[in-house]
Amino acid sequence: MIKTLAWFDGQILPVQDIRISPLSHALHYGTGAFEGIRAYELEGGGGGIFRLKEHIDRLIDSSRVLDLELEYDRQQLMEACRETLRANEMKEGYLRPLCWLGEGGMGVSGMNCPTHTMIAVWPWGAYLGEEGMRKGIRVITSSYERIAPNAGAKNAKLTGAYFVGFMAKRNVLALGMDEAILLDRDGYLTEGSGENIFVVKNGKVLTTPTSSPILPGITRDTVLALCADHDITVEEARFSRSEIYTADEVFMVGTAAEVTPIREIDGRPVRTAPGEITQQLQKEYLSLVRGAHPRAKEWITPV
Q1: Domains of the chain
Q2: 154 catalytic, yes or no?
Q3: Which residues pair with 120 in a beta bridge?
Q4: Cα-based torsion angle of the residue sequence 27, 118, 74, 79 in order, rounded to the nearest 10 degrees
Q5: Burial, 150: exposed, middle or buried (Cβ in 10 Å; 0-12, 13-18, 19+)?
Q6: 52-65 and 74-87 are packed helices; what angle lies between their axes, rounded to 10 degrees?
Q7: Which one, 45, 123, 141, 271, has least CB within 10 Å?
Q8: Is 96 exposed, middle or buried, given 0-12, 13-18 or 19+ CB atoms closer than 10 A?
Q9: Which pLDDT band holds residue 139 (cuts at 50, 70, 90)?
Q10: pLDDT band at residue 106 under the 50/70/90 scheme
C-alpha cells in the first residue's frame, strides 16, 4: 500500500483519506485523463521535475478530448505537482496527475458529473527492472491490436484507452516475458503497452511516426532531440516485424521506462543489446534528467 500525501481538488491529504464514490462515472466508463511524470534528485542538489510543462499541457489537452471541465490552469497544476512533492519531502519520485468524472447522473454521457483532480506521488525505480536497463528486456509481439485513430483518441492519455495495453501486458507477463509490442490494423509495429519503440539499423534510428496509432510520447520527443544534437539520422516510418527482427539495436522509451534496451524479440536475440547508440542515448538521457546536460535548464522545473 502506498502511504503518501496526495493533492486532491486543492487540498493535501493522505491518499487513504481521499474518498471516491463507487458511483463515479470514471469507474464505470473509463472517463479520465492522466499523466506519468518523474522527478529526479539533481546532481547539483535538490529535486527537479522533468518536462513538467509538456506533461501538464498534454493532461489539459487529454481532458479537452473528453470534455472534462478542469478548475485549474497550467500554472496551478504545475505548482500542485511541486507542492505534492514538497509535502512528501521527496526530491525524487513518480507523479500521477489524474482528472476524472465523479458521481452525478448515471448513464454514458456523464453530462451532470463533476470533474475531480488529483496528484499522487510515490517512489519508483526502473519500471522494467534494473537488469533490464543494463542488459535489455525480452519482448513479444502481442495478438492485441493498437486502437485505430477512428476508434479512439490516439494523442490523448486517457484511462479507458489503456485496457488494450493492460491485456497485452498481462499476457506477456504470464508467458514470462517483460513487455509487449502492439501492431496496428495493417500489421505494422506501433508501440509497447506504455512505451514508444526505436530501432537502429546501419547507424540510422527508425521510429514509428505520429501518424500511426501511437501516443506521441514526451520521452520519445526528448530522444529525438538528443539524436538531433548528435547528428544521428532519424527516420519516422512504419516498419514490420521482419524489420525489427533484423535490426542492429532496439530500445523502448517512456517516462516510466526511461531508455530501456531490448535484447530479445519473439524468441530472436537482437544483434547487439545494448547497442552503442542505445547506450549513448540512455547515458545522456539519465544525465539530462538529473540536471547534468545543456538542455536541463529548459526542461527541468525545480521542486
Answers
A1: 5-122 (3.30.470.10), 130-290 (3.20.10.10)
A2: no
A3: 96
A4: -170
A5: exposed
A6: 120
A7: 45
A8: middle
A9: very high
A10: confident
C-alpha cell at 38: 518523474
Selecting among 157, 204, 283, 297, the annotated active-site residue is 157
Taking the whole predicted model, whether its pTM rises above 0.90 is answered as yes
Going by C-alpha positions, the residue among 104, 84, 108 that lies closest to residue 94 is: 84
The strand pairing partners of 200, in sequence order, are: 205, 249
- Cβ atoms of residues 197 and 206 within 8 Å: no
Are 195 and 254 in contact by the 8 Å Cβ rule? The answer is yes
- For residue 286, the tally of other CB atoms under 10 A from its CB is 15
Task: Using alpha carbons, select from 261, 237, 247, 253 the residue that is nearest to residue 199.
Answer: 247
The one-character DSSP state at 15 is: G
Nearest one of 174, 169, 176 to 252, comparing CA atoms:
169
Can you tell me the distance from the alpha carbon of 199 to that of 243, in angstroms, rounded to the nearest whole number? 9
CA separation, residue 78 to residues 66, 95, 262 (Å): 21, 11, 33
Residue 207 near residue 233 (C-beta atoms within 8 A): no
Closest CA to 18 of 159, 121, 118: 118
Higher-confidence residue of 35 and 105: namely 35
Q: Which residue type does 234 have?
A: V
C-alpha distances out from residue 109 to 101, 106, 187, 219, Å = 11, 8, 33, 33
d(CA 162, CA 159): 6
pLDDT at 151: 73
